[in-house]
Specification:
The complex is a heterodimer of chains A (241) and B (209). With 241 residues, chain A is of the alpha/beta class. Helices cover 32% and strands 27% of the residues of chain A. In chain B, 67% of the residues lie in helices and 4% in strands. In chain B, α1 packs across α3, α1 crosses α5 and α2 crosses α3. The chains are: A alpha/beta (241), B mainly alpha (209).
């Protein structure tokens, strides 16, 4: 069964007197633990697609279901339980540590502060940013910003992680590490729907699609043979060490 | 020489002199899943490369046979492992081949040729061109999704070994070409839309967001 299903979703925005189509008849299903990447240029509709999947925007037409239930209008604060949405800009006032920022979604759900902080530290460790726990947001490097944002999106223990273009502001040599982190999250049985603007973002995913003009277009799945090839190349990588 | 296996074998021999079975193993480690030739094809590649004077054999050093006459008779006594090394012209040919691979992507040129053919043919030009661009995009996204991510660097030391460096650079070159193709696809779609709109006379085009 699909974890997330978008069926014939459309979305239009008003820009002054003009109407702009952001999504046009988009249908998409994500299975549990699947890593799906959507390649698109900026203004292709890719972010609107993620925001609608997260329940942060309402579609004009069509339906969005998560675990079989309609996402539309279900939650006042936007994110349904079970969905994490990665946004690189961390909100909140200055003076708080990264661990406090990562713990925020739990605190908002009424988790006890010490429990929330312990879980935040665990997630920071999981994403390779344990060393950032006591820093402040302005002290972070771009890659750390992405890792911390992923930790914050994971802290509530979602089954689906939505990731919006995680590599765009990251140094060239660190992009693959960010994408490997995303891959490892999916391997840990959290489904991931990620947008990307570069070919690297599509490398090694379970399924890749493209979007332009608000329309989902090309789709490619990892063939069974390819899964074997990737598995072998990973094993080869491990052997060398 | 068109066989990718031949070029891969030449590349491996350039890295260090090697013999048939070892080359088979090294090729599997390096290109497994991309190139999976049977061992007979490795020997065929070695023959082809030797005939083209791109590699040359080195007999295994036999300590007991210092005398050249003796060394010539040695293969008769036991099966030697024939190591091959690259010749100067082999190294030069390989450099040129790698440069060529990066410079041209025949698929892209073929795509442009087909689009030009469609434009000349006339019937529903925009629709046919759009279908061609869609098919091309499918091929590109399939290729991009099948490229592996490079293995992670060891945390503190971002440096990688020489062999891995070459792998990373080749992967980066392939990804770079795909990025260029994706950008071209987006551009081609807009051009085809604009072309169609001038023909149908629609003024207000749907923009994307």
């Amino acid at each position: 069964m699909s974890l997330l299903t978008l069926e014939r979703v459309s979305k239009r925005f008003r820009r002054g007197r003009r109407e702009v189509t952001a999504l046009d008849d988009v249908s998409l299903a994500i299975a549990p633990g699947e890593l799906v990447a959507i390649w698109g240029m900026p203004r292709s509709g890719r972010t609107t697609l993620l925001r609608i999947a997260a329940g942060l925007e309402q579609p004009d037409g069509g339906s969005v279901r998560f675990c079989g239930e309609a996402v539309r209008g279900r939650h006042e604060d936007g994110l349904p339980a079970g969905i994490g949405y990665m946004q690189v800009g961390l909100g909140g006032a200055g003076g708080e540590s990264i661990a406090d920022h990562v713990a925020m979604p739990l605190l908002a759900r009424g988790t006890a502060p010490e429990v929330a902080r312990a879980r935040a530290l665990l997630q920071l460790e999981r994403v390779g940013a344990a060393g950032c726990a006591n820093l402040q947001p302005r002290e972070l490097e771009p890659t750390e910003r992405v890792r911390v944002a992923i930790a914050q999106a994971l802290v509530t223990g979602p089954q689906l992680l939505l990731v919006d273009d995680p590599t765009s502001h990251v140094d060239l040599l660190e992009r693959e590490a960010v994408l490997l982190l995303v891959r490892s999250i999916a391997d840990g049985n959290v489904a991931v729907l990620m947008t990307t603007g570069e070919a690297m973002g599509v490398s090694g995913v379970d399924r890749a699609l493209t979007i332009s003009g608000g329309i989902l277009r090309a789709e490619a799945s990892a063939e069974p043979a390819n899964v074997v090839a990737l598995h072998r190349s990973r094993r080869g990588g491990a052997d060398r060490r | 020489m068109r066989s990718a296996v031949n070029w891969a074998v030449l590349g491996l021999v350039i890295e260090r002199p090697s013999y048939g079975y070892e080359l088979f193993q090294r090729l599997e480690r390096r290109y497994g899943g991309v190139l999976d030739p049977p061992i007979s094809q490795i020997y065929a590649a070695l023959n082809a490369l030797e005939r083209a004077s791109l590699i040359e054999p080195l007999l295994e050093e036999l300590p007991a046979a210092a005398d050249p006459e003796e060394r010539l008779r040695a293969p008769a006594r036991r099966q030697p492992k024939v190591h091959y090394r690259a010749t100067a012209s082999g190294a030069r040919a390989f450099r040129e081949w790698v440069a060529d691979q990066m410079r041209e992507d025949p698929r892209h040129v073929e795509m442009l040729r087909r689009i030009a053919g469609t434009a000349a043919a006339g019937v529903d030009r925009a629709g046919t061109m759009r279908a061609l661009v869609d098919a091309y995009e499918r091929a590109c996204v399939e290729e991009a999704s099948q490229l592996p991510l490079p293995p992670a660097r060891d945390g503190a030391t971002p440096a990688v070994a020489a062999g891995e460096l070459v792998e990373r650079l080749v992967l980066a070159a392939r990804r770079g070409l795909l990025d260029a193709h994706f950008a071209w696809i987006a551009y081609a779609r807009k051009e085809i839309d604009a072309f169609e709109q001038t023909r149908t006379g629609r003024a207000d085009e749907p923009a994307d967001a």
